Amino acid sequence: MATPAQDIAISPNRLARTVSNTLSVSPTATFHSPPNSFGGAGFVRTRTTGEKQLKPFDTQDIKILLLENVNESGRQKLAEQGYQVEALKTSLPEEELIEKIRDVHVIGIRSKTKLNERVLREAKNLIVVGCFCIGTNQVDLEYAAKHGIAVFNSPFANSRSVAELVIGEIIVLARQLGDRSNELHNGTWNKVSSGCWEIRGKTLGIIGYGHIGSQLSVLAEAMGMSVIYYDVVNLMALGTATQVPTLEQLLNEADFVTCHVPELPETKNMISAPQFEHMKKGSYLINASRGSVIDIPALINASRSGKIAGAALDVYPSEPAANGDYFTNSLNQWAEELRSLKNIILSPHIGGSTEEAQRAIGFEVSEALIRYVNSGATLGAVNLPEVTLRSLTLEERNHARIIYIHHNVPGVLRKVNEILGDHNVDKQITDNKNEVAYLMADISNVNSSDIKEISDNLEGLSSRILTRVLF
Ligand SMILES: NC(=O)C1=CN([C@@H]2O[C@H](COP(=O)(O)OP(=O)(O)OC[C@H]3O[C@@H](n4cnc5c(N)ncnc54)[C@H](O)[C@@H]3O)[C@@H](O)[C@H]2O)C=CC1
Ligand SMILES: O=C(O)C(=O)COP(=O)(O)O
């Protein structure tokens, strides 16, 4: 069983001052509302300039929408904070998503929900997206960053699950097990050895030697395969695996080719007709990365011509929002042809769908969301610089934490510090990523009118993307 990530000990509600590096706090600790004039919590300033909320932060004000059946471990952790959590089993059609996203501060999704510019533009209150999965290609990361919306994911909690599925598929393909099973389900006994192989001694070619590819490399070698891999980055080989300099070389040499690259413009149709030409006759192709990586009509041709002896697909160019009919409703021209191929395994994007992986992802991403919402820490964010400040102690009363997300242009720090400089800045940190910078500062001995003044002045700067003040 997976070890759940360490519990973050954050007392529900009114906790802004207690969070940040709260991992060090005893799980049994409870925090009382510090006796200052703001009720001791903090407030979230929304991204809409017209609708300013200058009120102490209370977790109960935070609205969260979880889509795509995010694991209960994540939902529960968020609910324990006192947040208002709505959890749906499926993703939503774009128009419904737009309606729902307008209202929420946090959205949790998996791989299906497309948070493109059109959707994010409507998300006026959104401060953070949690991708309860590895891939973040479904989110317009750049638009989100430029509008002060942090995005978190779980970088490797389901890697092992994907690697194990691929190992299973290699053996199933090599033995034509899918076809034999289907035949017998339909009443036909078809005992054959022709074209069936052991995987021992065969060469596995891994495209993309990241978290999943490298994990798979170790498992495959343990089963007697030789491993070669191709990656745009020069990476340390595990075991006796060998990096090859070109994709063509990998395709020329591998008996099994498996794709583990992210969805990027450069990986779109990475395996198409010319690449099938390079593959060995009778080799196999596996794709558990993204549907855009393989040109399916080219795969159909390669299978029909006998160039490849089998394939396994876990991902598709378009995938449905919910379980149910797929191919019957599919608009894809190739759906029928794909289904009729010999020795082809079609699975419904289940590479990361294990109890272990989903539970671990639920813990990991919800913890990142809690840290961000309650303390502004961006550790692990994929689209913002990673910034944190130590948590405030109970002794540090009358503090406010300023979070100022701004355009990364010259002269901002001088202006920000002119605003903060009249107060006692206990600590401050800033960093940038591309065009966006993230500043955090803890100010002590401030009262409500100080906080209002600081907030208004920061909001007035032209560099401002998003200001939050937690107190
Ligand atoms: N089927 C499923 O349920 C799952 C699918 N995935 C997919 O698998 C992908 C890979 O996952 P990880 O291994 O965790 O990602 P990773 O980021 O750890 O590794 C990806 C590797 O691909 C390499 N790469 C990028 N562009 C390349 C190119 N043009 N040519 C060759 N190599 C290239 C990178 O340098 C990196 O080493 C994810 O992006 C996601 O889309 C991930 C988890 C579950
Ligand atoms: O983690 C990923 O990137 C995956 O592809 C798995 O996606 P899912 O959580 O099953 O929608």
UniProtKB/TrEMBL annotation:
Question: What GO molecular functions are on record for this protein?
Answer: 2-oxoglutarate reductase activity; NAD binding; phosphoglycerate dehydrogenase activity
Q: Does the keyword Transmembrane helix apply?
A: no
Could you say which EC number(s) this protein's record lists?
A: 1.1.1.399, 1.1.1.95
- Give residue ranges for domain D-isomer specific 2-hydroxyacid dehydrogenase catalytic: 64-383
The D-isomer specific 2-hydroxyacid dehydrogenase NAD-binding domain covers which part of the protein? Answer: 169-351
* Sorted UniProt keywords: Amino-acid biosynthesis, NAD, Oxidoreductase, Phosphoprotein, Serine biosynthesis
Q: In which pathway does it act?
A: Amino-acid biosynthesis; L-serine biosynthesis; L-serine from 3-phospho-D-glycerate: step 1/3
Name the record gives this protein: 2-oxoglutarate reductase
Phylogenetic classification of the source organism:
Eukaryota, Fungi, Dikarya, Ascomycota, Pezizomycotina
